[in-house]
Design goal:
The complex is a heterodimer of chains A (186) and B (300).
Chain A lengths: L1 H18 L2 E14 L8 E12 L4 E7 L4 E2 L2 H11 L7 E8 L11 E13 L2 E14 L2 E11 L15 E15 L3
Antiparallel strand pairs in A: 1-2, 1-9, 2-3, 2-4, 3-5, 5-6, 6-7, 7-8, 8-9
Chain B lengths: L2 H20 L4 H4 L9 E2 L22 E12 L13 E12 L2 E8 L5 E10 L2 E2 L8 E10 L17 E12 L4 E12 L10 E12 L4 E12 L10 E9 L2 E8 L6 H6 L11 E11 L7
Antiparallel strand pairs in B: 1-6, 2-3, 2-14, 3-4, 4-5, 5-7, 7-8, 8-9, 9-10, 10-11, 11-12, 12-13, 13-14
The chains are: A alpha+beta (186), B mainly beta (300).
């Protein structure tokens, strides 16, 4: 009798873990560029410690990044970014929760390049908005390289750019994501 | 327990478990997305390394140069004749460098007494959060020197170069209490090698109190007071008090203020403030700070 329970439970657990493979990284790279067309200075920063997870079964994708982790070439820009625009003490994290809408087209067990479409909710500066973007998955040797570029309007996230700096800071920011994800062994 | 009941139970457990896993689970928390709280410095207590006249607990970022132009105009109570003091100006120009996150140095020159000054500022302790051992305050130590550049008052006597010099030593202890409010105290000792009168003390002790109250993201109210305890000559000197606003505009910080002090280095404003707020001997002044990034941030 006990054997039956054990086997049933065992099979059940196995089937769950086999179905649900998750890839993750804690060193994802996210860059953004909000340089206005006429700006003499580059308003751009990079963060190399984004956390990212992809559930290959469901196509679920999640990103999380600490706003304070964005590093600028100019210290003063970093200060203004944290203090005046992103208010990183109030809103320490930016997050994305979404899904790969064409997940069935990706064969995670085989090396190859796949174009994907991602749809989800991006939370920045305490404001959540729907975002859709094209991305790319490169599967090689059991690792996933995920890249995506998209653009957001700063005003959508209640980030106001005062007239005084409008010639330097643009109205929208280009965001690039580049992550190398490994199999998560929980 | 019979078999049917058992299978039913297992089935229920399975359905329940599946239902849970099918829910919108938080993948990030599963991989430990919530990082352990890291110890981090509390930054940006003040917009500038100076409250108004006094050193603040804030430092320049490493690799940056702060070019400062300071103006102090004439007394407001002179009225229209001198356009409320704006016809007269005393100024100081300085270059401050950020070396480490807790080390900076600078030098400046004032028109008042043609005085050169230089300082080194170092913080052994910085306010922090998130770690196991957090410091509630920043402690900064400042050591500075000033050199009078005027011709000797009495060329007939033997004059020593050292007579031109004065020194100051200061501890600045402050805390950023909230996003909008920072407060600091700064015990200070000023030593003058040469004083005017026999009765004047060489060592002067003062306690400064400075603060900032943010009015908006880019505008803050600031105040900066020094109470001179020991060694203030009786005749005609007052405790320096400055009240102003910091306005930040991209790469510049404008500090506009009213003050009874003309001096723009520690020796001058702490020990030789001749204006009296009580009788309206107040001046308008401004500090203009422009920060340049000399060395690009390393971003590996």
């Amino acid at each position: 009798m006990k054997k039956v329970i054990l086997i049933t439970l065992g099979v059940f657990t196995l089937s769950v873990s086999a179905n649900s493979q998750k890839y993750f990284t804690k060193a994802g790279k996210i860059t953004f560029d909000a340089t206005a067309a006429s700006s003499p200075e580059q308003i751009e920063a990079v963060n190399r410690s984004a956390t990212a997870v992809i559930d290959t079964k469901t196509g679920a994708v999640q990103f999380s990044v600490l706003v304070k982790g964005f590093s600028f070439e100019r210290a003063l820009m970093e200060e203004h970014f944290n203090e005046n625009y992103m208010e990183s003490n109030k809103f320490p994290k930016s997050e994305f929760k979404g899904t790969i809408t064409n997940n069935s087209a990706v064969d995670y067990s085989k090396d190859g390049n796949y174009n994907i479409k991602v749809q989800g909710k991006l939370t920045v500066h305490g404001v959540t908005k729907d975002v859709t973007t094209d991305g790319k998955l490169v599967i090689q040797g059991g690792k996933i390289n995920a890249t995506a570029d998209f653009s957001v309007q700063l005003a959508d996230y209640s980030i106001s750019i005062p007239g005084l700096v409008a010639d330097k800071v643009g109205k929208s920011a280009k965001i690039s994501v580049s992550c190398s994800l490994e199999l998560f062994k929980g | 327990m019979n078999k049917i009941k058992l299978y039913a139970l297992i089935a229920v457990v399975c359905i329940f478990a599946n239902a849970v896993s099918a829910q919108d689970e938080d993948l990030l928390s599963m991989v430990g997305g919530d990082e352990k709280p890291k110890k981090e410095r509390v930054k940006y207590a003040f917009k500038s390394p100076r409250v108004i006249n006094s050193h603040s607990i804030e430092f320049l970022n490493p690799g940056t140069l702060d070019f400062r132009i300071l103006h102090r105009f004439g007394q407001l109570d002179q009225g229209y004749k001198n356009f409320f003091g704006l016809d007269q100006a005393s100024m100081r120009m300085s270059f401050d460098f950020g070396i480490k996150h807790n080390l900076m140095a600078g030098a400046g020159r004032s028109t008042f007494k043609k005085e050169l000054d230089a300082f080194v500022k170092y913080a052994p302790v910085r306010q922090s959060t998130g770690g196991k051992l957090n410091s509630p305050v920043t402690v900064a130590l400042v050591s500075g020197i000033t050199m009078d550049g005027m011709p000797w008052a009495d060329p007939s006597r033997t004059n020593y170069f050292s007579s031109r010099l004065a020194y100051y030593f200061q501890a600045v202890i402050g805390r950023k209490f909230s996003e909008g409010f920072s407060l600091q105290v700064s015990p200070t000792m000023v030593h003058k090698n040469l004083v005017q009168l026999d009765a004047d003390p060489n060592d002067i002790y003062a306690l400064g109190i400075g603060g900032r109250l943010k009015l908006s993201k880019r505008i803050a109210l600031t105040w900066d007071y020094n109470h001179v305890f020991v060694g203030m000559p009786d005749s005609g000197y007052y405790h320096p008090l400055s009240v102003g606003v910091d306005i930040e505009t991209g790469g510049h910080v404008f500090q506009l203020h009213f003050s009874n002090a003309t001096g723009m280095n520690e020796r001058a404003f702490i020990t030789e403030t001749t204006g009296n707020w009580g009788s309206g001997e107040v001046r308008f002044g401004f500090n203009l700070s422009r920060v340049f990034q000399l060395k690009k941030h390393k971003r590996d």
